[in-house]
């Protein structure tokens, strides 16, 4: 039952309201499980692609997280990086890896990060631009051959795979919800490098558990959540999802007021 008419603000908010009303909880759960299965399959293909191009296991997490950051829009300045922006040039200032790194740097400058924290992150992401050999054209891997017309750099091949199979689905879907995207990818990398990682005490909590625990704690729009043992931030992701859902129940989905409240929740 609708408690207000916020959903009538615009077509987008009405469509979101209608979709919410027509899906049962069972159907929503099925979509979450299906999306997780698809993400697992994508992670396996991505892992093989990076293995074939000799990207080491420790480097893979940096490549994935860094490249996904470079795809984000820098509001008020420029859009995120796209595969077509990577031209395969080999100068020191326009190599594909350098373009990705510079975009990450520009993106982080717009965030409220201390200079020390930003420099620490950039020192890690520098790995993406370190090896010029990875910016030279090379034969296309099978996993990416249908998306690129000609031989491309290793950097561009990995970037294009992430753009098409991770970045775009996340942006175009409302169903990623409680899924810990980076956690799922990281888990696959761990299996390759360390078995399942349990020998080192590395265990990733499934999204249905983080969701359940966040619900038991009664997380809502006014909550402040701290996870002292945060790894891939699965509990924080589920908590933020519940906070956003609480805001949308009050102000409607995709309404101006809801978007303002969500922005405040993310930056407070």
UniProtKB/TrEMBL annotation:
GO molecular function term, any single one: N-methyltransferase activity
The protein's name in its UniProt record: site-specific DNA-methyltransferase (adenine-specific)
Domain of life: Bacteria
Enzyme Commission (EC) number: 2.1.1.72
Catalytic class of the enzyme: transferase
Sequence ranges assigned to domain DNA methylase adenine-specific in this UniProt record: 180-246
UniProt family annotation: Belongs to the N(4)/N(6)-methyltransferase family.
An individual GO BP term: methylation
Lineage per the UniProt record: Bacteria, Pseudomonadati, Campylobacterota, Epsilonproteobacteria, Campylobacterales
The organism of origin for this protein: Helicobacter pylori (Campylobacter pylori)
Catalytic activity: a 2'-deoxyadenosine in DNA + S-adenosyl-L-methionine = an N(6)-methyl-2'-deoxyadenosine in DNA + S-adenosyl-L-homocysteine + H(+)
Keywords: Methyltransferase, Restriction system, S-adenosyl-L-methionine, Transferase
The keyword RNA-binding appears for this protein: no
Coiled-coil boundaries: none
One Pfam family hit: N6_Mtase
């Amino acid at each position: 039952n609708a408690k207000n008419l916020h959903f009538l603000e615009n077509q987008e908010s009405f469509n979101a309201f209608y979709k919410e009303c027509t899906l049962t909880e069972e159907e929503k759960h099925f979509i979450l499980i299906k999306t997780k299965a698809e993400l697992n399959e994508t992670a396996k293909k991505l892992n093989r692609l990076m293995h074939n191009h000799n990207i080491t296991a420790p480097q893979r997490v940096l490549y994935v997280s860094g490249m996904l950051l470079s795809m984000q829009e820098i509001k008020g300045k420029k859009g995120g990086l796209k595969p077509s922006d990577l031209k395969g040039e080999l100068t020191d200032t326009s190599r594909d890896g350098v373009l990705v790194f510079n975009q990450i740097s520009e993106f982080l400058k717009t965030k409220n990060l201390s200079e020390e924290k930003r420099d620490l992150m950039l020192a890690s992401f520098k790995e993406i631009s370190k090896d010029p050999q990875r910016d030279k054209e090379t034969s296309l891997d099978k996993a990416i051959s249908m998306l690129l017309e000609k031989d491309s750099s290793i950097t561009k091949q990995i970037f294009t795979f992430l753009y098409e199979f991770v970045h775009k689905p996340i942006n175009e879907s409302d169903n990623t919800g409680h899924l810990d995207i980076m956690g799922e990818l990281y888990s696959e990398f761990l299996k390759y490098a360390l078995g399942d990682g349990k020998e080192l005490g590395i265990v990733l909590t499934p999204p249905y558990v983080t969701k359940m625990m966040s619900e038991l704690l009664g997380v809502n729009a006014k909550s402040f959540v701290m996870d002292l043992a945060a790894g891939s931030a699965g509990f924080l992701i589920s908590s933020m999802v519940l906070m956003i859902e609480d805001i949308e129940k009050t102000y409607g989905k995709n309404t101006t007021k809801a978007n303002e409240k969500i922005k405040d929740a993310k930056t407070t």
